[in-house]
Each structure stands twice: as structure tokens, then as C-alpha cells.
Amino acid sequence: MEAELEYHRHIADDAERDAVVSEHPVDKREAGATAADVRRFERRLEEISRRRSKLVDKRAKLLEKLD
After folding, report:
1. How far apart are the first and last CA of the chain?
2. How far apart are CA 32 and CA 41, in angstroms?
3. DSSP secondary structure of the chain
4. Between the N and C ends of the chain, which has fewer C-beta atoms within 10 Å?
5. For residue 2, what pLDDT is reported?
6. What's phi and psi for 23, nearest 5 deg?
7. Which region holds residue 23: left if phi is over 0, alpha if psi is between -120 and 50, else beta?
8. pLDDT, tens only, 7-57
9. Which sequence spans correspond to the domains of the chain?
10. Buried (b) or exposed (e) across 1-11, using 16+ Cβ within 10 A?
11. pTM, 2 dp
12. If 0-12 CB within 10 Å is exposed, 13-18 middle and 19+ buried, where does residue 19 land?
């Protein structure tokens, strides 16, 4: 998932660069949309990481009960 996030970051960087150079409204909208995609992807990745951490902790506690 990190690789996919990096891919989206590159797309967002390219879109932002295009918007700055062209100053065209379509390019500006695209830059905003791709930046929003990156933020959404980052939030989702953080959420997955938190959930995974909780599950790992729960697993460790359950394994302790087996011993």
C-alpha cells in the first residue's frame, strides 16, 4: 500500500506542477482533486495501521492466555 500511496503522491506532484505552469482552471481542479486523493489515501492508511496494531495487541493477549 505504501507503494500505491507513493504513486498517488507523484501524480499529485505532477498535477500541481501542471497547474502552476499552465494556470488553467482544469489543471487547477485536477491538482486539487489529486491532492485530496492523497490526503484520503494517507488517512485510510493510518486507519489501517491503527486497526492492525490493535489486532496485533489482541492476538498477543490471546496467545498469552494459551500459555
Report:
1. 34
2. 14
3. -HHHHHHHHHHHHHHHHHHHHH--HHHHHHHHHHHHHHHHHHHHHHHHHHHHHHHHHHHHHHHHHH-
4. C
5. 85
6. 55, 20
7. left
8. 999 999 999 999 999 999 999 999 999 999 999 999 999 999 999 999 999
9. 2-66
10. eeeeeeebbee
11. 0.78
12. buried
Cell reading at 35: 491532492
39-64: buried (b, 16+ CB within 10 Å) or exposed (e) per residue?
eebeeeeeeeeeeeeeeeeeeeeeee
Q: Grid coordinates representing 46?
A: 493510518
- Dihedral sign of CA atoms 38, 42, 47, 49 in order: positive
Cell of 62: 490471546
Do 23 and 63 meet the contact criterion of CB atoms below 8 Å apart? Answer: no
